[in-house]
Amino acid sequence: MSFADLGISNPVVDALAKRNITEPFPVQQMVISDALAGHDLLVQSPTGSGKTLAFGIPIVDLIKPGSGDLAALVLAPTRELASQIVDELDSICRAKDLRIAAVYGGVGFGPQVAAARRADIVVATPGRLEDLLSRGAITLSRVRVLVLDEADRMLDMGFKPAVSRIVAQTAKGRQTLFFSATLEGATGKLAAAYTHDARRHTQEPTVDREADIAHSFVHVDSPSDKLEHLTAQLRDGERGRTLVFVRTKRGADRLVKRLRSHDLEAVAMHGDKSQSQRERALARFERGDVDTLIATDVAARGIDVADVTHVINFDAPGDQDAYVHRIGRTGRAGNRGAGISFVLSDQVGEMRRIARDLGLSREFEQARGTISGETSTGGNDNHNAGPNSSAAPKRRRRRRSRSKAAA
Fold first, then answer.
1. Which residues pair with 228 in a beta bridge?
2. Residues 278 and 366 in one domain
3. CATH number for the domain including 226?
4. Residue 261: what pLDDT?
5. What does the longest C-alpha to C-alpha distance in the chain come to?
6. Which DSSP letter does residue 345 get?
7. Which of 297, 301, 325, 399 lies 20 to 30 A from 80 at CA?
8. Cut 0.85: pTM above it
9. Residues 249 and 305 both lie in one domain
10. Based on the structure, what is the number of domains in the chain?
């Protein structure tokens, strides 16, 4: 199936082809036709599945340029994700003579207000958008298409009241596209409240079998033991850029300090940092000034850094979606990568389930050390396993040659 088969206009198809994007991802195949037909959608799809273009392409083809009104609004939980969405959609917007603008905190109001007033499409975080609405800078009364991206994360971050106030200001007859990693519980109730007769599509999170990633799990006896294993990994001379995931903002800052005490330089990125601090940290990481970035799940959403050789789960991921989102940051564009997860004794059961559901049971049972009283198979010493290490359990597949537009 091609993008043209989905009913997409020639200018957009051509703009995608110029970026070597010619074959739609599964989530794009699922939802684009329904979105173009004007249906409300509930889409359960993990990060990295290509969902940005899944909602972006229909928006661009549904809106007519030159109306002078804000016609489409995309709500995103973080500044980084909002910026990435704008970057991803910019070329197809230009192909249809549409203007797109980002609205998020941490930067001056003036340029954002000016850009938002001219825009056909605005991508915004809830807090800053409410600031602009309270100032009368823009109006949402003529928004025809509303997208809530990573809605579950917006709930986790406490944005539900703001989102509800924003949605109430959009046109009643709007089309709503609701994207989330889960559609159960509170997220499902929110989805039902915001949509009408919605069509539902689900794409289960999976490990990319064609990515060249060595998945490995390391049993650790205590939280302090994790630091020893991490410093050993970071002293590996063959590694390159390394992304280390922790669960909390405080944990990120604390880990940076602990690494510095071991003469290892790292930078932290999380929601308590100002926009300029986060941009500086990311820039240092991208330039190679520092090769280790400590991040929380929320802060890392929307970040796309090339040539990450290692992803280390210093704190175990909360679920399989988080595992896929984290480890998927390495092994890109035909490069080799290593995904390493530290597992405490009380996390064994949950991590074993995650590994099983993702088809990584063999890798999990080959974890270094003893798990739940069982001796690891083969006695592999994987604590220093990297993508070039013979000790690392490997799941190799040839990566697709076509360009991926995952977001």
1. none
2. yes
3. 3.40.50.300
4. 95
5. 67
6. G
7. 399
8. no
9. yes
10. 2
